[in-house]
Design brief:
Strand order of the largest sheet: 6-5-7-9-8
Structural class: alpha/beta
Number of helices: 4
Number of strands: 9
Order of helices and strands: HEEEEEHEHEEEH
Oligomer: single chain
Strand content: 25-35%
Largest sheet: 5 strands, mixed
CATH topology of one domain: Chitobiase, domain 2
Radius of gyration: 32 Å
Distance between the termini: 97 Å
CATH architecture of one domain: 2-Layer Sandwich
CATH class of one domain: Alpha Beta
Length: 227
């Protein structure tokens, strides 16, 4: 007769360190605090990188705030005769991605530029800002230099200031004419002659139309589309 051996189970008693639970809670608390701090630091940075920096028309833009004003800062390399000349900094008041003013022509620049004001364009509140933006943009190109003039399209108005009217007839291969005028709707069109461009500012969307012209010119130089 075979005797069965009784199996004896031994239980191992583990004594827990009373301080271990407290230590775990402490490390969890420290981890949460660090995560919260990193969140406060990283979330604004990531938001800025994802939503406030973008590329449009071959130009890199950054949305910035100066007091109550919002600008869209873009940097554009000016290259003249194959040589890097300077970085042009543009500060737009309107988001270029949302500026949908029709641009219905290819743009070009010559060493002489004339800006001709027509049909009440000077009465727009933002006309001065638009003029400054155009002047800054044209002056960025070394071949233009100081060959920028401003006049009037209307002959009678030009006569009052004892200057000659500027129309598309003045445009040539070496002379770019920009006609700015009020219209039913804003748009940028080719004028009656090559190298003449008409900026229809609609009901005083003067600055917005000028900014569309500027970003359109930069995009064209970069070989990019605005669509």
């Amino acid at each position: 007769m075979v005797k069965k051996k009784n199996k004896v189970k031994t239980e191992k008693i583990v004594k827990e360190n009373p301080n271990s639970a407290v230590e775990k809670q402490f490390f969890w608390l420290v981890g949460i605090i660090i995560a919260v701090i990193l969140g406060f630091v990283l979330i604004p940075i990531l938001y800025h990188q994802i939503f406030e920096k973008f590329e449009y028309g071959g130009v890199k833009f950054e949305k910035i705030k100066e007091g109550q004003l919002t600008f869209y800062h873009g940097q554009f390399p000016v290259i003249y005769k194959g040589t890097f000349y300077a970085i042009y900094n543009v500060y737009l008041r309107h988001d270029p991605r949302k500026n949908e003013i029709p641009l219905n022509t290819n743009l070009s620049l010559s060493n002489k530029i004339s800006i001709s004001l027509n049909d009440g364009a000077t009465s727009c509140e933002d006309a001065m800002l638009g003029q400054i933006e155009l002047g800054k943009f044209f002056s960025a190109f070394p071949f233009v230099n100081k060959n920028i003039t401003t006049g009037f399209y209307n002959a009678s108005l030009a006569k009052e200031f004892n200057i000659s009217p500027i129309t598309c007839d003045n445009a040539s291969k070496d002379h770019t004419v920009i006609v700015i005028q009020r219209s039913e709707t804003p748009s940028i069109e080719m004028g009656e002659k090559d190298n003449c461009f008409v900026l229809n500012v609609g009901n005083c969307k003067y600055l917005e139309t000028v900014e569309r012209y500027v970003i359109g010119a930069m995009a064209q130089i970069n070989g990019k589309s605005l669509n």
